[in-house]
Amino acid sequence: MTTTADPRSSTASTSGTGAREPIEQVRQLVTEVPGPRSKALQERRLAVVSKGIGSTLPVFVERAEGAVLVDVDGNQLIDLGAGIAVVNVGHAQPRVVARVQDQVQDFTHTCFMVTPYEEYVAVCEALVRLAPIEGPAKAALFNTGSEAVENAVKIARHATGRDAVVVFDHAYHGRTNLTMAMTAKAMPYKKGFGPFAGEVYRAPMSYPFRDPEGMTGEQAAARAIAVIEAQVGADQVACVVIEPVQGEGGFIEPAPGFLPALAAWCRKNGALFVADEVQTGFARTGDVFACEREGVRPDLVTLAKGVAGGLPLAGVVGRADVMDAVHSGGLGGTYGGNPVACAAALGALEAMADLDLVGAARTVEERMLARLHALQAQRPGIGDVRGRGAMLAIEVVKTIEDDGVQRATLEPDAAGAAAISAACHAAGVVTLTCGTYGNVLRFLPPLTIEPALLDDALDVLETAVLSALAG
Ligand SMILES: *Cc1c(COP(=O)(O)O)cnc(C)c1O
Predict the structure, then answer these.
(1) CATH T-level assignment (fold) for domain 36-92+357-468
(2) Is the C-beta atom of 275 inside 6 A of ligand 1?
């Protein structure tokens, strides 16, 4: 281990494509977390990396496989974040590794807009086949989720000749200028970064835990539609953009009926329904795409995170007539659909089918939900347990004493969520928080996580919850 910044002596430059020892799928701590080598790297980092870039857990990773991260101190951590829903197929998925290695040797870049290559076409063929679009579909590839969302808006505006974009409370769509405008939460995503793009309007979301008791999805949709019609005007709306299960905003799953009612309103009013499946896509929620659960057929779907096993790739897939409305050359980018990222996607999509990751996500749901509900029964500060597939969360709230028993309130307990997360980190389990109020712990394991490893992570979580929250 070196503490100099000389790249030749840095551990990061260690090469080697030879056979590697497989990483045993167990949690194992050999130092405190973070350990001394991670702490030394953190010192180097603080000297040169902008403070604007944060990290949940300053543990520097050396290798990863399956659902285990190995840090520079030799600790093995259980990854319940999957790099924010990216490595759905597990770290170092062999199909992804093999295809990437081959592609790197063949060529790494030509720019599809200059001289095209088959891998891009093959990824679009797969996306068109998988996405729940009605009728013929086409796709276009980009690099990041934000870019995919920006392009979906460009396409929708061009196709409809309208300007207005409708988004929802608690939405997260990215960090570029247009997508910051679409994202709801000010801190940390927007504060001080304006002025933001115009013609973005926010409607109320269906949030069963916080909505009036018994409010149906149809009623929540009517509430949103009333806002859209009164404040935007139905004939002004180019598109309604929504995450079928909200991600950063708190893993909020709208009440059944909400998404179909919004999609029907769009169809009736000539607006496009855009499902932002950047976080929910690729088997994460127990369907290939989350909007399949209610049979919703979006006009456009945005995708990124889980598509390429960790390489940066994003896309928009949608109705062919809409995707083709844009003039030639109107969409693109230097790196969009990079051949190495496309090769990774082909490996990841193959793994998703061969390993039945849709089924795997449902198995994770079954295993985890039972444990989370059992914990909720012991700790009323877990106000809500929710999510689908391997996209699950607990919302932590303050409690009040009522007739000698503790009961949940709606008041967020961000400190409680942070304490649970910190205890998990110290014990070697990577957990993430999210939510408009910062009080949601979210769980996004690789879908391939082994049952014994998941159980071990849940034991750690249980201990953390029982000590952080009052009984
Ligand atoms: C992460 C995310 C984005 C932004 O993706 P980046 O690749 O970080 O730009 C957009 N939408 C949703 C729903 C996301 O979860």
Answers:
(1) Aspartate Aminotransferase, domain 1 (3.90.1150)
(2) no
